[in-house]
Design a protein that fits this description.
Layout (H helix, E strand, L loop, with lengths): L3 H11 L13 H11 L2 H6 L8 E7 L12 E4 L4 E8 L14 E3 L2 E4 L3 E8 L13 H20 L2 H24 L10 H8 L14
Antiparallel strand pairs: 1-6, 2-5, 3-6, 4-5
Length: 214
């Protein structure tokens, strides 16, 4: 399980610095880490991928106070813990996934032509992305490297160390995205119209199983 002090100390080890004894120790490394952490470090790392441990599914009703002049007829307010949208759908099991032309993401709202929207999103809420107990080991390592990339120049003034950590960050992001994608359940792609037509070709009932024609 991730722990803030352990994360800070792993970050300092990457930078070649001495570890902290506590989160209140009066040293420049701790102050630098606090600034980066409170400045949105976790959210930045969450934005980098569709992390399963931070994924939240929700049902949203449209906002009747908003009446668009044209285009999509319904507006849906984004929750305050939204980080990144994964799936938008008109139904609760997400078997139908809206494509780019079927909804819009603008000015803090989702827009569509239905009264109820179902959304899967990356959340930085206390029970999702900001719950360190839910973090995977790989994501924790990535946060440590990201923190190091933000403080290494100020802390070490070593271009060599800075370049080394930047390279680690690029590799971590690529590896982390691949690992998280592998944790997702197998999904069945939507059947195309060509396949449906081909499957029903030659049937006099047009594919209607409720009507049998001799």
């Amino acid at each position: 399980m991730a722990d803030k002090l352990l994360i800070y100390n792993a970050t300092l080890i990457l930078c070649g610095e001495r570890k902290l004894a506590s989160l209140t120790e009066d040293r420049e490394p701790r102050r630098l880490l606090d600034d980066v952490w409170s400045g949105g470090a976790v959210k930045t790392c969450l934005e980098a991928g569709f992390w399963n441990f931070a994924m939240r599914s929700l049902k949203i009703e449209y906002d009747p106070s908003l009446d668009p002049e044209f285009g999509f007829t319904r507006a849906f307010s984004k929750p305050s813990d939204w980080v990144r949208t994964s799936v938008v759908s008109p139904e609760e099991y997400f078997t139908t996934k809206y494509k780019a032309h079927q909804f819009a993401d603008e000015a803090g709202y989702w827009w569509a032509d239905v009264d109820t929207l179902y959304v899967k999103m990356v959340s930085d809420g206390a029970n999702y992305g900001n719950n360190l107990g839910n973090w995977t080991e790989a994501f924790t390592r990535h946060v440590e490297i990201y923190l190091a990339s933000r403080i290494v120049a100020k802390l070490t003034k070593s271009e060599k160390t800075e370049e080394k950590i930047e390279m680690k960050l690029k590799r971590s992001l690529a590896s982390l995205s691949a690992k998280d994608a592998m944790n997702e359940g197998t999904s069945i792609p939507e059947e195309g119209s060509w396949n449906r037509s081909r499957r029903n070709w030659g049937r006099r009932d047009g594919g209607n199983r409720g009507q049998l024609i001799g």
